[in-house]
Amino acid sequence: MFDIKWIREHPVEFDNGMVRRKLEPKSTSLIALDRERRNVEARAQEIQADRNKLSKKIGIAKAKGEDVSHLIAEVSRSKTAQAEAEDKVRVKTEELIAAMSIIPNTPLDIVPDGVDESDNRVEREWGKVPNFNFLAKEHFEIGESLGLMDFELAAKMSGARFVVLSGSLARLERALASFMLDLHTVEHDLTEVNPPALVRDNALYGTGQLPKFGEDLFKTEQGLWMIPTAEVPLTNMVADSILDGSNLPRRMAALTSCFRSEAGSSGKDTRGMIRQHQFSKVEMVTISKPDESGEELERMTSCAEEVLKRLKLPYRVVTLCTGDLGFGAQHTYDLEVWLPGQGQYREISSCSNCGDFQARRMKARYRGEDGKSTRFVHTLNGSGLAVGRTLVAVLENYQQEDGSVIIPMALRPYMGGLEVITANG
Prior knowledge:
Helix content: 40-55%
Structural class: alpha+beta
CATH topology of the largest domain: BirA Bifunctional Protein, domain 2
Radius of gyration: 27 Å
Shape: elongated
Largest sheet: 8 strands, mixed
Order of helices and strands: HHHHEHEHEHEEHEEHEEEHEEEHEEEHEE
Strand content: 15-25%
Number of helices: 12
Number of strands: 18
CATH superfamily of the largest domain: Bira Bifunctional Protein, Domain 2
Strand order of the largest sheet: 1-11-12-13-16-10-9-4
């Protein structure tokens, strides 16, 4: 969410940000809406001021013993007029907020211009892409051959885009999540949090999923939403609050189930675990001061990279271009892991700096050193990592010609010392 005052004072800068997003300039229409709101607000204030004067006149007239009936009637008419004016203020304010709530964040200058993912900029690569002497299989072929990954059984219970993992694969997914959390909390100094998986409208509004992306979410009959990512509850932990600046940055991590309708992904990744309605993810969220958020983004990205390094999974880091940037982000790094079965890099983590975009929606501030002034915090979020996609990457990169899968060294303590997953193991 933007500050309309800032837009009035920086219309060109705001519109340039929209154009870089491949959107039409919006400052003129927003400023016009705001002008209408301020005009009706000024009228409501004038009516209030006039009524205050009338009240004084009534007091003076009564003291003199004069007839005040006509003044009382005028006050009554004034109250009605003010109520109508205040209703117009409410309507215009809601119109302005509704218009601004669907406008994405503006990209930082360091973000490359572009239309889609083909224009993203590769920053660095790590690890050696495996060179098998056999035809690499995709993860679902491996899992089904092992007898430990069942999409048909899941479909009978839940429909498409669900999976049942069993035996060593179920344990491997749990091991990955535990490994990630231990790494982030012990070595990276993130605080582990176990947040709710069901949230109210205001929580999703605060992080930017609502109102624009409601169709991508699942909602219960009781009116609660199933979280698409732990970013939502973790970030909202500071909503409607004024934090002590000396306690920032605040770094958190959580393992949760996530739920997405995948409404816009018809025909994409219809087989396998890449794009599911339900999946596990370890999410990182940081709340920082504005002048520290750039450095915190680099730190968060390195935390996610370390997971892949420990697992010895080849990956690359890309900076998303303006056309591929998420709604609330002003700067994003994607981590893309190599999948031999697909013969390409696929996203496994996105680490984003949202600036004060979410903080304004959530009313999250911090108090400065002077103890008086407050500023909006900056919020950051990133996958550390998507557990299911990491399982996919392990299966494809550690597959053997006989169909077995070697367990990465970093995970063996979590697997009871098991070194290889074999059929029905």
